[in-house]
Structures are given as C-alpha cells and as structure tokens.
Amino acid sequence: MLVHPQFSPIALELGPLAIRWYGLMYLVAFVLAWTLGRWRIRHGKTALTARDLDDLLFYCVLGVVLGGRLGYVLFYKPAYYLVHPLEILEVWHGGMSFHGGLIGVLLVMALFARKRGLRFLQVGDFVATLVPLGLAAGRLGNFINGELWGRPGTVPWAMVFPQAGDGLARHPSQLYEVGLEGLLLFAIVWLFASKPRPVGQVSAVFLMGYGLFRFLVEYTREPDSFLGVLAAGLSMGQWLSLPMIIAGAAMFVWARRGGDTLAPRRS
C-alpha cells in the first residue's frame, strides 16, 4: 500500500513571496499552450498569427479563472456562496470547475473571434490542440496538493491520502486524469489535427474525448462530500460531461457534412 508523499504546497519561497505548486501548474499550462500554439502557427497549421495567439491566451486566462471559479460556485455550492458571497473572491482557498472554465473560455473565444474577423470554430479548433497538456499540468497540481483523491480501491497502486482522514487506500484518480484527459487526449487531438479537417471537427474530437475520459475517471474519483452521487448514481462531473459528449458527436457529424476545411494562414 502506498502513501501520498505529502509534498509541501509551496514550490518556492522568495523572501515574503511564496509560489505555490498549484499556481505554478497554471503557469506551466499557459507556457505549454503558447509553445504549442507558436509551433502550429510556424508550420502553417492555423489561420491565426503570433499576435493573435498572444492576445487569445490573455483572453483565455481570464476565461479560465473567472469561468472556473463561477462554475464551481454555481454548479457545486450555490447555496453556500449565496450565504457567503464575499468568499467567491477567495480563490486561494481552492474551488475551480473545469466545466465552468470551459464555458468561460468559449465566451472569450467568441468575443475574440468576432473582434478578429475569424470563425468561432476556427479559433476553437486551434485552442483544442493546446488545452490537454494544460489539463495534465492542472491535475498534477491536484496530486501534489493531495486533493481531489479517488474512491477506495484495492489496486496495487492504491494510495492513502492523509487529507482524507480515514486511512483508506484510494485510487490516485488525479494521475488517471493526467494520463487520460491530459496525455492521451493530447495525442489523439494533436494527431487528428495534423491533417486538414472540416472546421469544427478538431473541437468535436476534444469535446468527445474529454467528456468520455472524465466520465470514466469519475467512477474512481471520490464525489464531493457536500454533493455525493446524484441521479442514476452519477456524480456531478459525469452529469456535466454527458452534454460535452453529445455536443461533440453532433458537431463532428455536422462538420463532416459541411465539408468546409481549415482556411489557410492569413497574411
């Protein structure tokens, strides 16, 4: 039986400044997105320019942080934050929702596309290739913090998370998410996007892939104590992932029938 290493949440201290691992993982995520985005631009895989990428990442930072926080508030603990509204601003205490962050990113992408005269799905196909490795970094941050642990399990790599307070060996579901929603999804989306595709299909593959992997991992992830399992024995994460799978499948078929391939690089 393994025991979680109990890493310090602080990665680096510079005098009074403490850099936490979770915040560092967000920085890693955006550096990876910028690096991958520059590669795709340099190799003519997108119509976006380097300036577009820089501005888009700034928009996406706002979308992730604001959408992720508000998504957590609305999807997971609306009654609590209705009574304690000022705590919505206390993001350093944790509480971010991927699905909320996704909605935030979609909104800022729509705004960005409109301002730059680009098609929304054209921007979406570009962003979809950049996201999975960032997700992997975020889940690695969850593991380092010893949070969002899995359900009790008997697999050889089951791990005791002292923060759970019960001494039970549990699935390291954060690492499952690193592997599935991060590394494997990145490989699938990146390879699929390596050839010209109808506009919207890369986004569709991302939505289907993430939704499916998250739905499966949730069977090994401990549901939030204040929610538990919901209707049909599914967790909130699973219920939020189902629309992603359905929307992705519908978008994939729609894009294939439309037959509109990716536009060439703009001057």
TrEMBL record:
Pathway linked to the protein: Protein modification; lipoprotein biosynthesis (diacylglyceryl transfer)
Record bears the keyword GTP-binding: no
Example GO biological process: lipoprotein biosynthetic process
Binding site for a 1,2-diacyl-sn-glycero-3-phospho-(1'-sn-glycerol): R139
Location in the cell: Cell membrane
Main location group: membrane
Bilayer disposition of the protein: Multi-pass membrane protein
GO cellular component, one term: plasma membrane
GO MF annotation: an example: phosphatidylglycerol-prolipoprotein diacylglyceryl transferase activity
Protein keywords: Cell membrane, Glycosyltransferase, Lipoprotein, Membrane, Transferase, Transmembrane, Transmembrane helix
EC number(s) stated in the UniProt entry for this protein: 2.5.1.145
Residue ranges of the TM segments: 19-36, 56-76, 96-113, 175-193, 199-217, 229-255
Cross-referenced InterPro entries: Lgt
Pfam families: LGT
Protein family: Belongs to the Lgt family.
Biological function: Catalyzes the transfer of the diacylglyceryl group from phosphatidylglycerol to the sulfhydryl group of the N-terminal cysteine of a prolipoprotein, the first step in the formation of mature lipoproteins.
Protein's name in the database: Phosphatidylglycerol--prolipoprotein diacylglyceryl transferase
Source organism: Pigmentiphaga humi
Gene: lgt
